[in-house]
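STRUCTURE:
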C-alpha cells in the first residue's frame, strides 16, 4: 500500500508562515526554515515590545511633566509630591498632555499645588 502524505496541509502551513514573513530581508522571506525561525523570533519581540511600550510611554510622560514643571521653577519629584499631598488625582498621561498642549492649564495646576 502506498504511503499517504498530506501535502496539501503541509504546503498550506508553509505558505501561511511565508505569507507572514513577506517583506523580510533576504532568505528570511522565501526560504521556509529560515523564515520560520525569523517569524518565531518576531513573535517574541512583539510580545516583549508590548510590555516595553508601556514603560517607554511612562518615561516620555515623566520627561514632559518634568520639562513643564521646570519652566515654573519646580522639579518633577517635588511637583508630583505636592500634587499627591494636595490630593489632586491626575494621571501622568493627562499631565503630560496639559504641559505640552495646554500650558496655561498646566500653569494653573502648578499654582494650585504651590
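SEQUENCE:
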Amino acid at each position: 500500500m502506498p504511503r499517504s502524505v498530506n501535502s496539501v496541509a503541509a504546503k498550506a502551513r508553509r505558505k501561511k508562515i511565508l505569507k507572514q514573513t513577506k517583506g523580510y530581508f533576504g532568505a528570511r522571506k522565501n526560504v521556509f526554515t529560515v523564515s520560520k525561525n525569523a517569524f518565531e523570533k518576531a513573535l517574541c519581540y512583539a510580545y516583549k515590545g508590548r510590555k516595553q511600550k508601556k514603560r517607554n510611554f511612562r518615561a516620555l510622560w515623566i520627561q514632559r511633566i518634568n520639562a513643564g514643571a521646570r519652566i515654573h521653577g519646580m522639579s518633577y519629584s517635588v511637583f508630583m509630591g505636592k500634587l499627591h499631598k494636595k490630593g489632586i488625582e491626575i494621571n501622568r498621561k493627562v499631565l503630560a498632555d496639559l504641559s505640552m498642549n495646554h500650558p496655561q492649564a498646566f500653569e494653573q495646576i502648578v499654582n494650585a499645588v504651590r
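REMARK: The mean pLDDT is 96.
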